[in-house]
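We were asked to recover a plausible sequence for a given structure. The inputs and outputs are reproduced exactly as logged, with field labels preserved.

PROBLEM: sequence recovery
POSITIONS: 240
GIVEN STRUCTURE:
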């Protein structure tokens, strides 16, 4: 039977772009008061674009981690702005904390929280597998999720099989005991399916499937997920 349900977070349980936009605004407001030279030289687009590209090209081994890339981009930006190296360490730490805290202020999609809470109450083990750096404990999911693993911690990002296999090993699960749920046809559906997990595609925009092996099930509203989980569980029992 199905024992565990894992979720992607960004754009599956909430829209991430508005969250990042507000977090960047909060960051630059802090910088205007605490690091004006950075603001004089750089824009938000520089952090997301030129500075990010610069650090990823110089350190491709950190490309999987949005946290490490953001930290490196901030460091590069402060140095370019003329801050001394001994001051940059503290500025990077403080500015990232401002961004990171704001990044946790999410607005759940309709039915998201009650749906996850309901699955937990049904007795499923519930967790998160994400490429981003949202914390289940800071966004308000700690009471209904048992664990999480993100790309920074795993050392790889979805759809790499290692991130899924690390969860299986850590939770002592077989892939056929797990349903992974997410919005990305490649990172979530393909990645999880390739290690043998069942999959549910969250398609809130009603888009056409882009091609390739389809998910086990798909939903256009998060309220449909419990029924999809029950259906997969029934299929799983039939295979035993």
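RECOVERED SEQUENCE:
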């Amino acid at each position: 039977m199905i024992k565990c349900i894992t979720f992607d977070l960004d754009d599956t349980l909430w829209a991430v772009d508005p969250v990042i936009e507000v977090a960047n605004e909060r960051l630059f407001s802090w910088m205007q008061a605490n690091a004006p030279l950075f603001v004089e030289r750089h824009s938000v687009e520089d952090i997301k674009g030129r500075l990010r590209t610069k650090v990823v090209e110089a350190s491709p081994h950190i490309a999987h981690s949005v946290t490490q890339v953001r930290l490196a981009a901030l460091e590069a930006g402060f140095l370019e702005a003329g801050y001394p190296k001994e001051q940059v360490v503290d500025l990077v730490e403080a500015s990232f904390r401002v961004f990171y805290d704001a990044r946790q202020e999410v607005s759940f999609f309709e039915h998201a929280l009650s749906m996850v809470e309901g699955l937990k109450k049904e007795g499923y083990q519930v967790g998160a597998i994400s490429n981003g750096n949202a914390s289940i404990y800071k966004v308000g999911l700690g009471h209904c999720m048992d664990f999480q693993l993100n790309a920074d911690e795993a050392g790889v990002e979805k759809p790499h099989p290692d991130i899924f296999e690390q969860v299986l090993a850590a939770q002592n699960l077989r892939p056929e005991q797990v349903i992974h749920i997410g919005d990305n046809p490649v990172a979530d559906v393909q990645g999880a399916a390739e290690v043998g997990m069942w999959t549910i595609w969250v398609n809130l925009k009603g888009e056409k499937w882009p091609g390739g092996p389809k998910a086990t099930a798909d939903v256009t509203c998060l309220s449909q997920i419990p029924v999809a989980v029950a259906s997969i569980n029934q299929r799983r029992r039939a295979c035993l």
